[in-house]
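Re: that chain you flagged

S.,

Sorry for the slow reply, it's been a week of failed gels. I finally had a moment to sit down with the sequence you sent. For the record, here it is as I used it:
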Amino acid sequence: MAAKNSSRTTRSASSKSLSKTTLPKKPTKTQAKKAKSTRRAKQKEAEMLVESSDGESDCSEIENEAEGEDLSKCSIENLTLLSYISNLKQILTQFNNMAEVYVESASTPTLNQFVDREATCGNTRTLEFYAKDLGTQIDLLLMFEPPKVGKLSRRAKVLTSQPGISTFARRVYVDLFPLAWKVISFSGTGTCNASVTYSADTGFFVPSFQGGNRVSASNAQHCQTGEKCTLKVEDTHRYITSPVPGVKGVLQCTNLTERPASLGIGFFNDTGFKIEPALLWDNVANNYTLSVQLTPKLKIYAVSGYKTTDVIRADIESPVLFDENLIGLQPNSDWIVSIDVATGEVRIDPAN
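Prediction finished late last night. Pasting the structure tokens below so you have them in one place:
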């Protein structure tokens, strides 16, 4: 009997001991509320770390403190917070790397600088010509080669961005005329030099004829490749509107004067207040858009009898001495003008 009582007592004590070690007490409402408040405080602290500009150093301090602690005693909330901070640091590092790449890419200069008017200064070309004791006076005519790629279309039709070669664009000396962009002279004795500058600041102008063959601009407007202007009339005065986005790769102007009109293309000088005429289109029909893909290919001839802005109405009966795309030259280049003693021919050669 005593043995049975002893067995019962042992089982009862063992059951009580097991109950105490394996069954946790249910937290009170106060404890639960305190734990919830602690979690919210830790979340708020993490959000403050995100907004902090010195977030990296704050994260490092928390991690250093955590390394000195016994992780076996950390709560689940602390481990989650540390994992969140670690992921946040990786995201911030990736963002900084992306930002550095973007800044470097944005600082790279654009190749097609004709599109941006402020970038045309990158395409400016200055040519210096020198001569010495030529023995006779020489006049040099500088003109731009008429564009071989262009298009003339009705305003109602859609002009595609694909280059088209029209009959109108090929009718040089009929509807399209090059102009004497510059005329420079060298005396027969002594040392002479002349300088010309191509600004790359293109624009359309309303031509006004002087003396029958010379052209000036009564009105002009900046227009770069990829932009479009309009020729209008008000009280018999023709003017060109400010440019708007147009077709990529060409500069355009639409005639809305109710009658055929002449249009010119030139290059503004360094001040931006004066345009230097270079090309002239005649009889552009009403409601038609002139689209030009312009390449600044300069040709130089040794001829006399021309003045600046003269209309060139026929082929120059003289050998071409200089035929260069100005964009392919250095921003500043020097050239020697001479006369070949053996042949008597005028030469233009790069200066050494």
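What I noticed first: The helical segments are 2-22, 29-51, 55-68, 76-106, 167-170.

Talk soon,
D.
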